[in-house]
């Protein structure tokens, strides 16, 4: 099971990113544990200055905007 964190303060782009990651994981048959991080101080721990951001297994793989579906597919 992949540990995924979606970093963002609750904006529409953050919600869209989380939904996209869930949809792609489901279509690929990958089990994921998704955690939404909304507190700014918790987001800053990852060194992210632009959200939404995606962290997989502790590594920031995307920051600043909604990733493309092809990008998300490549993560799985």
Mean pLDDT: 95
The span between the termini is: 11 Å
Q: What sequence of helices (H) and strands (E) makes up the elements?
A: EHEHEEH
Radius of gyration, in angstroms, nearest whole number: 11 Å
Going across the biggest sheet, name each strand in turn.
2-1-3-4
Strand percentage lies at 25-35%
* Tally of distinct domains: 1
Which ranges are low-confidence, i.e. pLDDT below 50, for 5 or more consecutive residues?
none
The third-level CATH topology is Glutaredoxin
- Please write the CATH class name: Alpha Beta
Task: Please provide a brief summary of the model.
Helices cover 38% and strands 28% of the residues. The protein has helices at residues 12-28, 40-44, 69-75; strands spanning 2-7, 32-37, 53-56, 59-63.
Q: Could you explain the architecture of this structure?
A:
The protein has 76 residues and is α+β, with helices and mostly antiparallel strands. The protein has one domain (2-75): Glutaredoxin (3-Layer(aba) Sandwich), CATH 3.40.30.10. It has three helices and four strands. It has helices at residues 12-28, 40-44, 69-75, and strands at 2-7, 32-37, 53-56, 59-63. A four-stranded mixed sheet has the order 2-1-3-4. It is globular, with a radius of gyration of 11 Å. The mean pLDDT is 95.
What are the SSEs and their pairings?
Layout: E1 2-7, H1 12-28, E2 32-37, H2 40-44, E3 53-56, E4 59-63, H3 69-75
Parallel strand pairs: 1-2
Antiparallel strand pairs: 1-3, 3-4
């Amino acid at each position: 099971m992949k540990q995924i964190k979606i970093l963002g303060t609750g904006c529409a782009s953050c919600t869209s990113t989380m939904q996209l990651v869930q949809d792609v994981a489901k279509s690929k048959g990958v089990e994921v544990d998704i955690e939404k991080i909304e507190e700014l101080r918790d987001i800053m721990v990852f060194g992210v200055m632009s959200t939404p951001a995606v962290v997989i297994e502790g590594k920031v793989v995307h920051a600043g905007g909604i990733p493309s579906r092809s990008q998300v597919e490549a993560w799985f």
